[in-house]
Amino acid sequence: MKSKSGEFRSGWTALLAATSGMSAGLGLNAYVNNIFGPYLLQAFDWTKSEYALNGAISIITVFWIPFIGRMADLFGVRTVAVFGIVAYPISFILMSLLTGDVKVLYAIHFMQVIFCASTTATVYCRVVAERFTRQRGLALAVCAAGPAVTGAVASPLLTGYVDLYGWRSGFHAMAVFSGVLGILALILLPKRAPERRQNAARQSARKDYPMIFKSPAFRIIAISSFLCSLTHALATSQLKIVLADHNVSDVAAGYMVSVFAVGVIIGRLIAGVALDKWQTHIVAAIGMGLPCLGCFILATGTETLLLLGIAIVLIGLSFGAEADILAYVTAEYFPMAIYSTVMGLLTTAVGLAIGLGSGLLSFMLAKTDSFTAFLLLGGTLVFFGGINLLRLGAHRPAQTESATASTVAS
């Protein structure tokens, strides 16, 4: 067995490739939407309800992400990722051409989800999980932290750039940035070994899917992923708008988005280290249940920057921890041969929650023009989702030979 340092020496190229790919992929939307949202609302006089509905498009991941995950298992990460690497920069060019019809924004986001789903953790984390065992949690955390690091650095810089040159130029800058990092990821991603392709070709969906759905661990993780992700409708596009309702200035709100991004980074790293050291179900319950406190603070209507900052940090910590937790438990409870298939199904639960949460948020905003009711409901459901993860302790992962042996190159 390789030492901890030996894993990083042998796997650093794959880790860098996956991290670069994640940093130039669909995960950036959580930060891009938050940054550009107020500018688009001002430019086109869209309502908050119309803009919030954009997030509901994520519901198509219910059908699409599992397919992407299955394709990654069958044909390899490199082959699948290239579609998103090309499409994501193009989507920003198209956004820079918006003329005021909100339906065009919806269409571009739809295209992003379809083509760029291959740049998410469902695909890239497989490369890392295959090459790390003793420090898998930390390695996955580094990979998943890529978009958050990018968001933390880029949020104030991009906000300042947009203030100077306009939101259209801001989208152009995002196209260049994502294109460069995407090309780097494609160059560094390892090629798929011939024996791996032959083994994948023999996999049977008729055997794999029933095994997954019959697993008590899968049902627990999927249900909790759904409940804990309902409030992501706020985290992925509405933070600056929520803060504006608390009389936070645009500049301060921009820094708050950076605080959120820093929270995501810290959450992922803490979760990664914790998963390598402590019981998975305890770490998962705490890590994914944190947003309930943040939601309840925001629901109070407080204008105290310290309290608002704490709320944003708590939401960010959990947003970050969730990505690492889902990637880790997938590798721990299921064979590596179906890693991306399981990740795709769990990501579907998250996407369904974001889509339904966005639709519910849009409905509540249209009725009350307030975030309070959604924050109270969402925080309560997140609490129960975190508690449910404690049940994983009764279902120990099966350490099968196939799971241990499947560390061949992707």
Mean pLDDT figure: 80
Q: Biggest sheet, in brief?
A: none
Q: Tell me what portion of residues adopts beta-strand conformation.
A: under 5%
Assign the CATH architecture. Up-down Bundle
Anisotropy-based shape: globular
Write a structural description.
By secondary structure, the chain is mostly helical. It has one domain (4-405): Up-down Bundle (Growth Hormone, Chain: A), CATH 1.20.1250.20. The chain contains 22 helices and no strands. The protein has helices at 4-23, 29-44, 48-53, 61-75, 77-95, 102-116, 121-131, 136-144, 146-165, 167-188, 194-201, 205-214, 216-229, 232-235, 239-245, 250-277, 280-289, 291-299, 305-333, 339-368, 372-388, 401-405. The longest helix has 30 residues, at 339-368. The chain is globular and about 50 Å long. The protein starts with a helix and ends in a 5-residue tail after the last helix. Residues 194-198 and 399-410 have low confidence and may be disordered.
Summarize the structure.
It contains 22 helices and no strands. It is mostly helical.
